[in-house]
Amino acid sequence: MDAHLHLDCQNSLGECCFWDSRDHCLWWTDIERSCVWQMDSEKNATCFNLPGRAGFILPRRDPGFVIGFPKLVALANQKLTEFTKLCDVETDLPQTRINDATVDPFGGIVFGTFDETRDMKKRQPIASVYRLAPDATLRKLFGNVVISNGLAFSPDGTTMYFADTPDGRIRRFRVGTDFEEFEEIEPLPDKEATPGLPDGATVDAEGNYWNARVWGGCLVRFDPSGNVTAQIDLPTKGPTCPTFGGSSLQQLFATTLRVHHSPEELTATPEAGGIFVADIDIPGLEQRLCTL
To answer: Is the pLDDT reported for residue 16 higher than 80?
Structure first.
């Protein structure tokens, strides 16, 4: 399968997309340009400037969003003009920032950080993954991470997926009610089976895990046993995050990036940084809403 360009938005680092069925819009962040994008079903797009880089944006049940700025998590109003801090994150580690996130099955959010040291060869496993509960209690789930990505939950909410991008494994965790139980189980097998490295992810209605393969130029579907059952190729090497959308949740959208491309690569693939879409046989799930 192939994906085609849906919106030529030229994002530097498009990330953390989701479809909100309440307004029939796709939302996502361009981290490096400190902005959030909204696109409706007619491809009308609006860009909102933010006071800082946002690693993620997630929807609330109440009007507005939860946003992960580099060193804090905040609530935002629907117009993205007012922000209220919920918590600080890793203020003692100047080289990390907040990155990937997802709404958990109990109304909180799980998010991770990463070491953004400019020289990628010098990045260290100093980042961590956290859970912010609906009452705004922050809990560290685990550490020893370089680049947090791939966060998603199974349809029944009992399995959490996670990937540390340089490591390449898609790890899994068993989750009990409100995270009273949380333990790592076996990862999906054969991390060498697909191109590129794991970035953002989502899960479909049958429990398959869709992963953006950054530097591999594709989106890959794994069944719960770890078998690769589908691959969608993009004309650019940098897909970053997939999400299901459209009226039947059978369109798979993907954000992409333009950073870490040579001038020659951008000339050859000018669509880099755009939003891509493909039609899918198995639908996705409604976006979970956080209750923070």
So the answer is: yes
CA 150, 154, 103, 230: dihedral to nearest 10 degrees?
Answer: 40
Cα separation, 154 vs 64, whole angstroms: 25
Pairing of strands 56-59, 83-88: unpaired
Q: How far apart are CA 74 and CA 228, in angstroms?
A: 37
Domain boundaries, the chain: 4-279
Residue where the block lists tokens 């680092």: 13
Task: For residue 209, count CB atoms less than 10 angstroms from its CB and return exposed for 0-12, middle for 13-18, buried for 19 or more.
Answer: buried
Backbone angles phi, psi at 34, to 5 degrees: 50, 55
Q: Which CATH entry fits the domain spanning 4-279: 1.10.10.10, 2.120.10.30, 3.40.350.10, 3.40.50.1100?
A: 2.120.10.30
Q: Whole-angstrom Cα distance, residue 256 to residue 37?
A: 13
- Coil, strand or helix: which one is 277? strand
Q: pTM for the full model?
A: 0.96
pLDDT at position 227 over 80: yes
Instruction: Give the mean model confidence (pLDDT) for residues 147-176.
Output: 97
176-184, Cβ contacts within 8 angstroms, sequence gap of 24 or more: 177/106, 178/106, 178/133, 179/104, 179/106, 179/108, 179/131, 179/133, 179/139, 179/141, 182/141, 184/142
In angstroms, the CA 99 to CA 101 distance is: 7
